[in-house]
Write a structure and sequence with these properties.
By secondary structure, the protein is α+β, with helices and mostly antiparallel strands. The protein folds into three domains: 3-63, Uridine Diphospho-n-acetylenolpyruvylglucosamine Reductase, domain 2 (2-Layer Sandwich), CATH 3.30.43; 69-179, Uridine Diphospho-n-acetylenolpyruvylglucosamine Reductase, domain 3; 184-295, 2-Layer Sandwich (Enolase-like, domain 1). The protein has helices at residues 23-33, 46-51, 84-88, 91-96, 98-104, 110-113, 118-123, 132-136, 234-240, 247-260, 271-295, and strands at residues 16-20, 37-40, 59-63, 69-72, 75-79, 141-146, 149-154, 159-161, 164-165, 172-179, 184-193, 200-210, 216-224, 231-232. A five-stranded antiparallel β-sheet has the order 4-5-10-6-7. α9 (234-240) packs antiparallel against α10 and α10 crosses α11 (271-295).
Length: 296
Amino acid sequence: MYTNQINTRLLYPSFDYFESATPEEAVQLLAKYGQGAVLLAGGTDLLIKMKQGLIEPKTIIRVRQPSFIDSGPDGFHIGAATKLRTLEKSRVLIETFPALLEAIKLIGSVQIRYMATLGGNLCNASPAADTVPPLLVTDAVVRILGPGGYRIVPLNEFFLGPGKTVLARSEILTEIHIPLFKGKTGSSFIRLSRASMDIAKISIAVLLQLDGDDRIGSARIALGSVAPTPMLANKAAEVLVGNILSSDTIARAAETVSDEIRPITDIRGTAEYRKDVSRVIARDAIEAAYRRAKAS
């Protein structure tokens, strides 16, 4: 076991450092330096892992990418290098997808959010990543650049396991696209953790679209910290569709959420705890999203 895994390291091991002028140059540098190379965006995850000795890169490549939030008829396009604090203060995004705002405000401190990027939070591929469930319920897709050009991947296919994504060795994430939902739409996010700046013991996001008579026309439910990757609870969402919300419908959907998740026992909580509490936060998140949809 490395002694620096208990945070005793003060100085990092030596490494080569490059700054890419463009995303294309970053891809070229990744291809050139191979397995020993890592990307640096905000650094809020990378530097901690280096301090703990979990990774010891030979080459660090700082990715210079545009930071932007563009809205249009097809939804929002967000640069992967966009800081979480910038998203937190985006009025149009807040009004359209409050669940994403609720998740971002729970990530670390304001100082961390001034450094951390949306792309970094996704590429770290933590099962507890706070931004992922709110993005999953929006059917978000990501744009990836590699030596062969760009490709588009649905976010629900981006994660392969803890710390693992579909990104190939020489690929980088450049953009996140959130489709625009029209009509009466509401979203919500709830997270439980041991302390305010700890990662989630369990989290949930819900997005509901209502028909003209306030029946649920479509529903999306996603959870974090309950499986090897953030996951969609599709069966639970199906319980809601076609119904005007009632206590019975909420209870059946919440029970289905508990049946769908695959939690483990770890230092933050037991699998049984996560199963039990998933019913409670599912009920609260569904009710909040429904209220917002009716008021929209």
